[in-house]
Write a structure and sequence with these properties.
CATH topology of the largest domain: D-Maltodextrin-Binding Protein, domain 2
CATH architecture of the largest domain: 3-Layer(aba) Sandwich
Strand order of the largest sheet: 4-3-5-12-6
Number of domains: 3
Helix content: 40-55%
Largest sheet: 5 strands, mixed
Structural class: alpha/beta
Number of strands: 12
CATH superfamily of the largest domain: Periplasmic binding protein-like II
CATH class of the largest domain: Alpha Beta
Order of helices and strands: HHHEEHEHEHEHEEEHEHEHEHEHH
Radius of gyration: 26 Å
Shape: elongated
Strand content: 15-25%
Distance between the termini: 31 Å
Number of helices: 13
Length: 308
């Protein structure tokens, strides 16, 4: 059946699928003659294309005599697939915290509320995620506002298309200490820094600037084990990672610069290639940020089971 879509009739079905996606169920569809004139093809080809869509169960039509033919049901995802409209693909942080699980669930379910699908990939490092947009492996990436602002200054073709608000990315960052007897940062500390995580790196360098520190270059997924084994004395990390917050003492930033950066790292933003803004905006459609955030909060509070 799918092979038929590559025929002339199939190409007509692809076009008609795009048109039917715009129509509400219960709406009268254009006449065969209208499609025939618009596409400069025979009426028989249009009729075969409509029959093909019905055979694939992408649509269900009902003839009402002189009143015309009505669209009584449609499979939106199947119509989008036939029309060649692929779902949006995005990259976001590894879901190590309930907040990120909530954000992923919010994205998936908010799109489902509008009858759409979205494909998400999960990877460490905001710069790595932005690179997927630059190389067109993702339609968008979710990063902190700070990482986005830094990247926009380097890559003018990038653009923030959506902002999710304060605390949508992380609740707060703090400094975690391996020794519970410590009360502050000091010279001589071994401090973990992940050069692939712009937020963690900038916060770390700002807080410890001018101090006699030994920086240990790590992957942030190693933070817990390296603090636990005291291979590190301190590391900046998110308060949303409950495994770390339960195990280690934390202290606030003292540096004014670090405090400012911490504010900018709390907000999640969605970044795209500006050349594709119209295409991505069309696929995003009427998906609401408020729905994403509401679902995120439900997951964080335990009211909803994560699903992504």
């Amino acid at each position: 059946m799918w092979e038929k879509l590559y025929s002339k009739n199939g190409l007509t079905a692809m076009y008609i699928s795009k048109e039917l996606l715009k129509l509400e169920i219960g709406t009268k569809i254009p006449r065969v003659a209208d499609y025939s004139e618009k596409l400069s093809i025979g009426r028989g080809t249009v009729q075969i294309a409509l029959g093909l869509l019905e055979e694939l169960k992408a649509i269900r039509l009902e003839s009402r005599g002189h009143l015309g033919t009505y669209l009584v049901d449609k499979d939106i995802e199947l119509l989008r697939e036939i029309a060649g409209i692929a779902p949006l693909t995005g990259s976001m942080p590894l879901p190590y915290s309930r907040k990120y699980e909530g954000l992923a669930t919010g994205m998936v379910e908010a799109f489902e509320l509008t009858g759409k699908k979205i494909n998400l990939s999960y990877m460490r490092g905001g710069l790595n995620r932005i690179e997927t947009v630059r190389t067109k492996r993702s339609d968008f990436s979710i990063v902190s506002k700070m990482t986005a602002d830094n990247s926009l200054s380097k890559y003018p073709n990038l653009k923030i298309i959506k902002k999710l608000g304060v605390n949508s990315y992380v609740s707060a960052h703090k400094i975690f200490l391996a020794d519970s007897n410590e009360t502050t940062i000091r010279n001589g500390m071994r401090v973990g820094v992940d050069m692939d995580s712009t937020d963690q790196m900038e916060l770390t360098f700002s807080e410890f600037k001018g101090m006699n520190i030994e920086y240990v270059y790590i992957n942030y997924m190693q933070l817990f084990d390296m603090l636990d084994s005291q291979q590190l004395d301190a590391a900046v990390w998110s308060m949303d990672d409950k495994r770390i917050t339960k195990a280690f003492k934390s202290i606030d930033f003292q540096s004014k610069a670090a405090k400012q950066i911490a504010e900018d790292t709390s907000e999640a933003v969605i970044i795209i290639d500006s050349d594709r803004e119209e295409e991505i905006a069309e696929k995003w459609g009427n998906v609401e940020i408020k729905d994403i955030l509401a679902i995120q909060k439900q997951v964080e509070s335990g009211e909803k089971i994560p699903r992504y």
